Amino acid sequence: MQVTRTIKEMKSARRGMRGSVGFVPTMGYLHEGHLVLVRNSNRDNKFTIVSIFVNPTQFGPKEDFAKYPRDPDRDSAMLEKEGVDVVFMPPPEEMYPPGFNTWVDLEGVTERLEGAVRPGHFRGVATVCNKLFNIVEARKAYFGQKDAQQVVVIKKMVKDLNMNLEVVVVPTVREPDGLAMSSRNVYLNPEQRRAAVVLWQSLFLARNLWSKGERDAGAIRSAMRQLIEKEPLAGPIDYISIADAETLAELTTLDRSAVISLAVRFGPTRLIDNITLP
Ligand code: AMP
Q1: Spatial contact of 76 and 212, defined as CB atoms under 8 Å apart
Q2: pTM (2 decimals)?
Q3: Computed over its alpha carbons, how large is the radius of gyration of the chain?
Q4: Residue 198: which of 170, 240, 169 has the closest Cα?
Q5: Which of 47, 129, 180, 215 is the most buried (most CB within 10 A)?
């Protein structure tokens, strides 16, 4: 496995690849969720490139950029074991040199949910993904359903900008109790970790209500809210959303493909999760 840190090195490694290339962008501090993306890429492609870059431009000024967990040595060892071909881990100044001035701004879908609570977040995500896509020139890129809105945003960017890339979406990998795996789960103390399962429980409840024929989105949102509010360590709730799977516009009636998503704080830690229906 080759570890590259400059764009020049990465591009040179890419030029040596003859055959299909899959790309897995990450912010590192890898867990099983990331590795499932890697395994999907390994299965579908001759070569797999993984990037590890905690992208400063997608963090707000009051967010956790500085303390976001990092362990590049452990990450490299995990990726080596998976048979990854090239890891790209650039320092921030390699991606954003002085004078960097070009941004990818998607309208509409980025203004809701995560975008409403984290202004500028998707501008950073879309810009860095665009740069990474240009650097690695993969045929397929792998993203987790865990970040449902990110998937919608990246697919829209790829379509709107006619990028030569297939976006492959991989189902969310969960802990045995249902909590979605996330690098941010390490921020939780043991009590918060136990309490955080309420996210999954509320999504499970939503799916059950839907299976029994409930189609009133408002009724499902309130049932989820009531369940979460019973957990003293959960909250405030940033949002509970039942939205059109493509536009992420809120639904009043569940009469089409939908994403049920939520963001809840546990102390200083903000967790997100979602399911898709049907
Ligand atoms: P991150 O390092 O958090 O930016 O995540 C990198 C990629 O891994 C994104 O496409 C995430 O959606 C995906 N990912 C993170 N957690 C999970 C998970 N539990 N299951 C599946 N994919 C995940």
Answers
A1: no
A2: 0.98
A3: 19
A4: 240
A5: 129
Integer angstrom CA distances of residue 124 from 52, 68, 105 = 15, 16, 9
CA of 143 to the centre of ligand 1 (A): 7
121 among known catalytic residues: no
83's torsion region: left (phi>0), alpha (psi -120 to 50) or beta?
left
> Sign of dihedral through CA atoms 78, 174, 152, 166?
positive
Per-residue confidence band for 271, with pLDDT thresholds at 50, 70 and 90: very high
Tell which atom from ligand 1 comes closest to the C-alpha of 34: 8
Residue nearest to atom 12 of ligand 1 (CA): 144
Q: Is the CB of 30 under 6 A from ligand 1?
A: no
> What is the rounded CA–CA span in Å between residue 52 and residue 258?
31
